[in-house]
Fold PH domain-containing protein.
Amino acid sequence: MSSDSRLHDASIFCRAVDDIDRSVIVVVGLLFVYRDGIANLRYLLPFLLLYFLAAALWESLYWYRFTYRVTDGEEISIRSGVLHRRHRTVPVDRIERVSVLESPVSRLFGLTELHCETAGTRDKSEIKLRYVDPDTANRLRQTLESTRRDEQRDGQSTATQLYRISLRQLLAYSLFRIHHIPIIFAVGTVISIVLLPIEASTSFTARVVMSVRAALPGGLGLSKWGVLILLAIGAGWTVGAIRLAIRMYGFQLSRNGDTLYRRHGLVSRVEEEISIENVQLVRYSDNPLLRSLGQTQLDAQTAGGSEILPFDSRTSLVPLARRADVEEIARQIFPVAFEDSVTIPKRARRRYFVRYLLIVLLAVGGTIIAREYNTVLAMIPLQVYLLLAAAAPVAAHIRWATISYVFGSEYLRICGGFWWRREYIIPYSNIQRHTVSQSILQRRHSLSTLRVDTAAYPLSIGAIIPDMDTETATKFGERLKQYVSSNNSDGNATERQRSSGVN
């Protein structure tokens, strides 16, 4: 494909609908809270029609000014922009990840969306073609893959399925998660409706509160706001679980040569490929409930990936499966077997105990002072804090016992967390930087915090080893230098052998 190509003609309509989809909620909210409240919704349809016409006009100009070209399988260039022109050229061998997406609107027109990510693009794709026909998308993806991986040019390799989510796993994965965004949105919506000066809203919330209190034994002593917030959290959780189940429906992971393929989605279908050689790290994640069921989750980060978005940016390879099955799949990426883990020094446990005890003492002092001005705090007996103080050594031990690490011959393993445990497997060859830091209190106990970073920036705040022995943390840098030096020596020896063979 050496000549300039354009997006599909129907992409104008699809992009215009996408533009409306982003603004409907905001417009409805503004019309609802303005004077006359619900009566203003009669202006919604004319507004959406005018908005769609304006969006279609803009997207028509965007379509006309957007061209792309793949030159001899070496680079892909895109010219775009209506007012501000932009010319991007990306070498094919720099592309880390290729994704194919189908939204409900694009599927009506038989179109698809192609995303290509390169190292360092954080949360945005470097190349985004919205929308092209499926044949064009598949041809482009095959061109990009065959150029980057010569061994698969013959197309004779077959994909091997590594994982397929079952209905039971899908339900557990959707329900056993905290859906932050839907819960926050639901609570904000309930608060906004209650505060609106509308008689219908007031009577409706009163009936809801009375019905809930009647259904609960003794109403559980919940106030009006307590009932509404509880209902909002439940509604947000339910909506979040349904959205996640729809998004991860039919999830399957397969391998073809050195490439992993993910496919999932019921309404919006996603198909993406991940080169194994570009994976910077893998991560196991679970919580106490999942651990009791023997289940865990496997994520991966590539050089083009990112965790800059806290809720929706992980590359999940296995949403939920038995620990043994997940470890087998992880070994498809990093063939490693670790020895027993090493825990941090016991003096760190004493430090945690003192920390938790000080927190309890501060809470007691704050309660004693504030209970004279707040009747709710006055109802809390001080014996509760005695129980918290008694639980401090248990909490300190759990915190200490859940932090471990292993310095393997080629890989680093970091494990930490109780309520949400994360375990990282990181090859030494992918570590871009390591940092050893000490706080004032750590210095007193000869403890330090070791943090490692890879090209999957930003890695995560959890990829650290807190409160490890300072001498051990310092020696990690020496171990890393020895590994790099050994690899360089092996590489030079191999290069000399090749040169002597040629001569």
The chain has four domains: 11-148, 180-247, 347-401, 403-503. The chain has 15 helices and 20 strands. Residues 151-156, 305-313, 492-496 have pLDDT under 50 and may be disordered.
